[in-house]
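Worked problem 6 (solution included).
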Amino acid sequence: MVDPLADVVALMRPRAVFSKVISGAGAWAVRYSAFGQPSFCTMLEGECVLAVEQQEPVALHAGDFVLMPATPGFTLSSQEPAVPVLLDPKDTQRSADELRHGRQAGPPEVRMLGGYFEFDSPDSTLLVSLLPSLLHVCGIERLPVLVKLVREESLETRPGRELVLARLVELLLIEALRSTTEDSAPPGLLRGLADARIAVGLRLMHAAPARAWTVDALAREAALSRSTFFERFSRAVGLPPMEYLLAWRMALAKDLLGRSGVAIADVAERVGYSSASTFSTAFSRHVGLPPGRYARQQ
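Solution. The predicted structure is:
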C-alpha cells in the first residue's frame, strides 16, 4: 500500500548536519533566533521548558522528543525564571563539545541531545507546510535511540556515513510524524491521514499521480458525497483536493527535473499531462520558470 507520509519524507531528502549535547543547571534561559531549518531534540534527563513563538510553553521531561520542521524563534529555560541569553543557532555549531547553560560547576540538572538537519528537496517549503510546526512526542522509546544513533554516526568518519545518516534521519522523521497522526493535529498531511476516508483519497493520488483524478472520482473511492469529501479534505489537509494534487505533481516534477537524463516529455507523462507543452505551461505558472530552465539550474 502506498504511504503518503513516507512519500513526502523521501521526497524531502533529509540529511543530518549537526548534533550536540546540551545541559543546564540552576536558573537559566536561552533565546534562539529563528533558524528556518528542521531541528530536533530528545531529553536525556531532567526537565526544562520550551516556549516557541506564537505557541503555549511546553514542559519537557526525560524521554520526550521534539521536532520543528522549520525552526522558528524559541526560548529554552529551566523551571526557575531567568533572563534569557540571546543565542544564534549557528554560533553553537563551532564545537562538538557539550553546550552548558546556567551554573557551570557541578553536575548538570538537565541534559538533552539536540541537532538540526537539512532538506535537499527543492520543494521543501511546500512539503514542510504539510507538517505541524511543532511536534512534541512522549513515551516513544525508539525516538531517543534513533537520535543517539544519529549523534554517534555524525561523529564518525566511517564508509557510507552520509547514506547511513540520511536513512537514520528519514526513520527519525517518520517515527516522530506517525506518532502524532491524530485528529488534534493541525491541518496538514498528518491530520488528513488520521481521517480514514480522506486517507483513501491521499493514498490514491500518491499511488497514481498521473491519473486524471477528479473530486467526484476521489469522493466515490472514499465512499463520500462530492461536497462532503471536498469539505473534509480541505479542512483536514488545509488545501482543496485538486490543489493538493497539483502541488504533489509539481513536487514530483521538480524532483524528476533535478535528475540528469530525464526528458521533459517523460516528466509530463509521469505527472499526468498529455503533452510536454501542456505540462510546461502548468509548470511555468506554478513555479515561475519553464521546466527546461528549471532543470538546467538544478
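Discussion: The first strand starts at residue 14 and ends at 25.
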